[in-house]
Amino acid sequence: MSSMKAISETRHGSTVVVTLDQPARKNALSMQMRLDLIEAFERIEGDASVRAVVVTGAAGTFCSGGDISGMNAADFANGRERFRVTHKLVRLMVESAKPYVAAVEGWAAGAGMGVAICCDTVVAAADARFVSPFGKLGLVPDFGLLHVLPRRVGEGAARQIFLRGAAFGADHAAKIGMVDEVVPAGTALERALAIAAEYAEAAPIPLAMVKNYLAQGLADALDWERNTQSTMFLTADHAEGRDAFIGKRKPVFTGR
Question: pLDDT confidence of 69, banded at 50, 70, 90?
Answer without folding.
Answer: low
